[in-house]
């Protein structure tokens, strides 16, 4: 069965991006996927991926990740031909989607206070750390995972069934926090294996997430939104707060 995709944006043209580029071209050549085009997003025009042969329907977009996402994720600018546009993240990138949602919220509500805040409540996974960038990094693995693991139902590290799912854990964590404050439903950018060892998440997750959060924020003076860039086993978790700005006393 062939998976039909629209545009596929690979974030970064370094070692990971170059590997993903080669794997996706191989997957296409073998009939596993089709795509409209591959985009490699890197601010270095001479990144390693730029040396790949150009006759394989891909191009390097010389841009910062933030600037690219601000333009590319604009719902009005997307190509609506029924094929899903996708993002291929790299495990070494910052929490790009949290920062993109923060910038989107600031444009949507210029008269409100909008900021990323530390998600202070632990998730409770074996690895669960709030780092200095105010992002909580979480993982069900307390072992060294195989490189480019596709997170199958049988975990290759412990040779036993994978009984966990990060999205379910975050949903339960969010529900617990709802009892003590005003939270929107979490927005999760869930990376799944698509073909030949390459995981990605759909652009629709971003567009749908904005719509869901906007509807919730319009009904509350202050609201928090949990934002996760996750896979089945690992994740980066941030919290976005939108609050009505208190008037300055005269």
In words, what does this structure look like?
α2 (65-72) crosses α3. The model has no long low-confidence stretch (mean pLDDT 91). The chain has 250 residues and is α/β, with parallel strands linked by helices. It is globular, with a radius of gyration of 19 Å. The protein is built from 5 helices and 16 strands. 25% of the residues lie in helices and 30% in strands. β15 and β16 (234-244) form a beta hairpin. The termini are far apart. 36% of the residues are buried.
Q: Provide the gyration radius in Å.
A: 19 Å
Helix content: 25-40%
Q: What would the principal axes of the Cα set say about the shape? A: globular
Mean pLDDT: 91
Specify the number of helices: 5
Largest sheet, if any?
Answer: 6 strands, mixed
Low-confidence stretches: none
Strand order of the largest sheet: 5-4-2-6-14-13
Beta-strand percent range: 25-35%
Give the N-to-C terminal Cα separation.
67 Å
Order of helices and strands: EEHEEEHEHEEEEEHEEEHEE
- Record field, number of beta strands: 16
Structural class category: alpha/beta
Concise overview:
With about 250 residues, this protein is α/β, with parallel strands linked by helices. It has helices spanning about 15-30, 65-70, 95-110, 165-180, 205-215, and strands at about 5, 5-10, 35, 35-40, 60, 85-90, 110-115, 125-130, 135-140, 155, 160, 185-190, 190-195, 200, 220-230, 235-245. The termini are far apart.
Features of the shown structure:
5 helices; six-stranded mixed beta sheet; 250 residues; alpha/beta; globular
Q: Mind sketching the topology for me?
A:
Elements: E1 3-4, E2 7-11, H1 15-29, E3 33-34, E4 37-42, E5 58-62, H2 65-72, E6 86-88, H3 96-108, E7 112-117, E8 127-130, E9 136-139, E10 154-155, E11 160-161, H4 166-178, E12 187-190, E13 192-195, E14 198-202, H5 204-217, E15 222-230, E16 234-244
Parallel strand pairs: 1-3, 2-4, 2-6, 4-5, 12-15
Antiparallel strand pairs: 6-14, 7-16, 8-9, 9-16, 10-11, 13-14, 15-16
Helix pairs in contact: 2-3
């Amino acid at each position: 069965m062939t998976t039909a995709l629209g545009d596929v944006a690979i974030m970064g043209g370094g070692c990971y991006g170059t590997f993903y580029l080669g794997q996706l071209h191989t997957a296409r050549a073998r009939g596993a996927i089709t795509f409209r085009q591959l985009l490699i997003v890197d601010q270095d025009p001479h990144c390693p991926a730029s040396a790949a042969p150009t006759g394989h329907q891909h191009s390097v977009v010389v841009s910062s990740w933030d600037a690219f996402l601000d333009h590319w994720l604009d719902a009005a600018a997307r190509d609506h031909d029924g094929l899903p546009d996708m993002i291929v993240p790299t495990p070494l990138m910052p929490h790009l989607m949290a920062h993109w949602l923060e910038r989107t919220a600031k444009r949507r509500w210029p008269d409100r206070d909008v900021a990323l805040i530390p998600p202070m409540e632990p998730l409770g996974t074996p690895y669960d750390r709030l780092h200095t960038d105010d992002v909580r990094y979480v993982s069900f693995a307390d072992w060294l995972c195989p490189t480019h693991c596709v997170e199958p139902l049988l975990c290759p590290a412990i040779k036993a069934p994978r009984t966990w799912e990060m999205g379910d854990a975050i949903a339960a964590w969010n529900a617990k926090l709802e009892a003590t404050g005003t939270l929107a439903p979490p927005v999760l950018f869930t990376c799944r294996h698509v073909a030949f060892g390459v995981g990605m998440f759909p652009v629709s997750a971003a567009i749908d997430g904005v719509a869901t959060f906007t509807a919730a924020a319009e009904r509350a003076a202050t609201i928090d939104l949990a934002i996760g860039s996750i896979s089945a086993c690992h994740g980066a978790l941030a919290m976005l707060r939108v609050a009505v700005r208190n008037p300055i006393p005269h």
